């Protein structure tokens, strides 16, 4: 675009990531229609892409987007006779409200976004539909990103999202935080989505960067809000503790070139001690007062990593025992894979590899690159380099980000036999 202000496109993307969920929640509360809210929010972003490069990014970009989206929604409703009654009701509501838009969207938080989270977690929706809808609409992830999070094709995920929105509309599911009697049934769905959102920030499913700190920090921010609203819910404390303890490693998880730094190579002096202390203080809250939940157990595992001065000093027997508890609470091939890695640290690579090979038939793991990378690492440690190379190739085909692919290419080159006649530069016997 001619005359585009430097950095305007990046500014729009940054604002979109920061404000999208807030904007959508505010629009849904105002208009009561998720499809309409999503469409006018997208139109407001498109308008920003046209105007901001020329006029500059406004001082309060969130308010600009909200005002623009509201106008577009009202214009659309005026053109649609089926919405005439709704528009009249909305106009009465608008007349009662303050005439000026908010200076920013923070006044609409925390409750409105949580209202939308809990609405999308309604039991009338399937578990997968609930999570997909929340990640797509509230977290601002693209449909392919959500599909990667659930390990399904993008077309399949797009259909799930459409069906979920249709269900909300046809079942007239209200946009509100549920009452105390409804909360236990909906809270696990909200926690799962916050965890999925954090996971996308911790290890991006695709793109040029390994991490998306803004996404991870948004998940933490929402978990803090939920913790303030529901201080008696131990699994909320557990999830927040888990996020804090894992996110504390962010500065040490990548090297200067952006390539992943594995746990045993990380400079632990770069871990965020304040964040670790905050997380450690929440772990006893999550583990006391009754049987532990899955997030509390995972937080306890993360706490053992955070407290260890190095990999060798980590309490691997205790970590394996906690994974045993976690598998009983929430059986999952991914958890079984993580337990196998812990067993490899406790009992040696051969024991860990045997457990990983037992999981080879799991459909979920066939397309999960960390599984193949874990097998490759253990095969390499056992000196089975040809098999390690094959596993690294599988992981490389499935990895979603360029930094992960770069690390896997480097690991693959270290175990691949040289081409016939090539000079050997390794001590591994190739």
UniProtKB/TrEMBL annotation:
Record keywords, A-Z: Sigma factor, Transcription, Transcription regulation
InterPro entries registered for this protein in UniProt: DUF6596, RNA_pol_sigma70_r2, RNA_pol_sigma70_r4_t2, RNA_pol_sigma_r2, RNA_pol_sigma_r3/r4-like, TPR-like_helical_dom_sf, WH-like_DNA-bd_sf
Top-rank taxon, per record: Bacteria
Ranges for domain RNA polymerase sigma-70 region: 16-81
GO MF term list: DNA binding; sigma factor activity
Keyword Acyltransferase recorded: no
Name of the protein in its database record: RNA polymerase subunit sigma-24
Species for this entry: Marinitenerispora sediminis
Taxonomic lineage: Bacteria, Bacillati, Actinomycetota, Actinomycetes, Streptosporangiales
Residue ranges constituting the DUF6596 domain according to the UniProt record: 186-283
